[in-house]
Amino acid sequence: MKLTRRNMIAISSGAAVVASFGAMPAFASLADDAIAEITGGAEMGEGALTITAPEIAENGNTVPISFDAPGAVMVALFADGNPTPKVASFKFGKLSPSHSASTRIRLAGTQNVVAVAQMEDGSFQKTQANIKVTIGGCGG
Amino acid sequence: MISRRDFLQVSMAASALVGASGFGNWSRLAAQQSLTQDQLLEFDTFGNVSLIHITDIHGQLKPIHFREPSINIGVGDNKGVVPHITGADFRKAYGIADGSPSHYALSSGDFSSLAQAYGRVGGLDRVATVIKAIRADRPDAILLDGGDTWHGSYTCLKTQGQDMVNVMNALKPDAMTFHWEFTLGSERVQEIVESLPFAALGQNIFDAEWDEPTELFPPYKMFERGGTKIAVIGQAFPYMPIANPGWMFPEYSFGIRDENMNAMVQEVRAAGAECVVVLSHNGFDVDKKMASVVPGIDVILSGHTHDALPEPVTVGQTIILPSGSNGKFVSRVDLDIRDGRMMGYRTKLIPIFSDVIEPDAEVAALIDEQRAPHVADMAEVIGQTDSLLYRRGNFNGTWDDVICDALISERDAEIALSPGVRWGPSVVPGQDITREDIFGVTSMSYGKAYRTEMTGEFLQVILEDVADNIFNPDPYYQQGGDMVRTGGLGYRIDVSKPQGERISNMTLLSTGELIDPARAYVVAGWASVNENTEGPQIWDVVENHIAKLGTVTVEQNNSVEVVGV
């Protein structure tokens, strides 16, 4: 399923957290730099790549993330609010039965997890999910 | 597609609390004397399938008072639309006359005097009568319990939910989903669920270790009724380990998981379901968004946020019905399922006026049996109240004011924090406050009242964090409670701002000074989600406080200034 609209709303609120809380340094530029290393600054499309992630992490220390990228030869994951944004990269060969994977990552706070896929034709795709890390505690 | 004719026919029926007899009929009934059980139950049976929905009972076996909120702010796409309109605005939107039974059941305003006229609501013995009457019309009606059932009362706490299980079993539900049930601890939940003679559903209840579906909680159940196949998919409260203590049920993971919901809808459709019903504990705004994201759901029976609406809200081809809380309402939903689709519906939100609906004798006896060992303890009068004690509202409720005062005085604190939960019956002025009343607004499996120091900066982080759980414009990031209640601490909140910018002007009320981010304040609170929290139980703290006061009088609370609405 596409997560575009949700992401658009979420990104704006996530960015505000980084800006206003001060406790969390803005690592987004580090992630941008790391992504540019892979893509060489090429335009990134979207549509073929999806991320599945919780909207709010149950435990920021171990957040389940999965992606599905049919037609990708490589998918790299970045956590744009972590001190080291690079999380992992996955390579898929021609005989790979599915171009998907799941893993768990540690998130320092509310932030975006960004997936960048390199497709068979050499083009790039990008998608992201905003994951909130909260102190919680007052459910109805 | 549902034809336009079907929709018109449906909207006529659905827009009435009294079903086919026409909306607004109640307004002409001056008082309870002219309200009868037949009128409450009147329904022109429709289509070939009936659903019965009850949700968020919160352990209330007996009739109670329950005041609906006067402040329930919607943000983003939900600004100014139901259920985020209250009081007189709500009545205007639905054409409900002031002082009418619908006013009393569905909206705030004049609650104390209307409570005198119309009496208590709810009581599972009355609910049993309603369910039996619907089954007399439609013997194979599907009864669905939306969860928050095994929590919220003295007897429920003492019996670890067994009282509710015994009584609900007598009502013979067909399926259930969950939220507060898990605060009994996963071992107890498993023990009860294995004993249930009906389905325990949750497409979003996963094994935490492997992030896979569980065997104990299947995603859905198929029912063959009225010559068709209906799939009921369960959706448990998505944020249990965040809003409640996850250490009590570490084996389970939740989340909205709309991708999996979509897969389940496809799966049941492929298996021949002509109608897909979601039994949800998402909360109303989350359900609206889910209906817009996941295609193919016909009906969402909505719980968690305790909203009660006299007619369904439609999102695309999906109808969403929230059926209130605390045993106050039962929804009847008749569906016309033909040719592989829902052709029409007729619904009725039935308010359980306890003085009008005859209790079912068998269930009444069963309830008394559950309560008998505890009646003497529960009935003890702790004090009286001059004020209406209620909880619902985004920022405060008078019950919470009493609880915060109790925390400050009994725990010798500067500031008190009380969770923004939405359960807990009301107590009307002039009434005794019994121990049962206190448990009604405090009982839980993690009720210890902590006392600690927090810096001004950390207090602000807490307020910002909780505010974003309520006022994030994307419902998927909302947890469905209300703002944490504060005692001794005032603040201004701009609900239109993003997280980190909503809270300002935090003030220590005892001195009138602004909160110093660097200073440590003595804070007392309860319902911490942290393991190994220490302190006396909150119900003992509140009881001691009320016993000392004798009579409770709650002043107007102006400590929260709300802007950006």
What is the strand and helix layout of this fold?
The complex is a heterodimer of chains A (140) and B (565).
Chain A: H1 4-21, H2 28-39, E1 44-45, E2 50-52, E3 63-68, E4 72-79, E5 86-91, E6 100-105, E7 111-119, E8 124-131
Parallel strand pairs in A: 1-8
Antiparallel strand pairs in A: 2-3, 3-6, 4-5, 4-7, 7-8
Chain B: H1 4-14, H2 37-41, E1 49-54, H3 87-94, H4 101-106, H5 111-118, H6 124-137, E2 142-145, H7 154-158, H8 162-171, E3 175-176, H9 186-195, E4 199-200, E5 206-207, E6 212-213, E7 220-225, E8 228-235, H10 240-243, E9 252-253, H11 258-270, E10 275-280, H12 284-293, E11 299-302, E12 313-315, E13 318-322, E14 329-338, E15 341-351, H13 361-371, H14 375-379, E16 381-385, H15 398-410, E17 415-418, E18 432-434, H16 435-442, E19 450-455, H17 456-471, E20 485-487, E21 489-494, E22 503-508, E23 513-514, E24 520-525, H18 538-549, E25 551-552, E26 560-563
Parallel strand pairs in B: 1-2, 2-3, 3-4, 8-10, 10-11, 11-13, 16-25, 17-24, 21-26
Antiparallel strand pairs in B: 1-14, 5-6, 5-9, 7-8, 12-13, 14-15, 16-18, 17-20, 19-24, 21-22, 22-23
Q: How would you briefly describe this protein structure?
A:
The complex is a heterodimer of chains A (140) and B (565). In chain A, 21% of the residues lie in helices and 34% in strands.
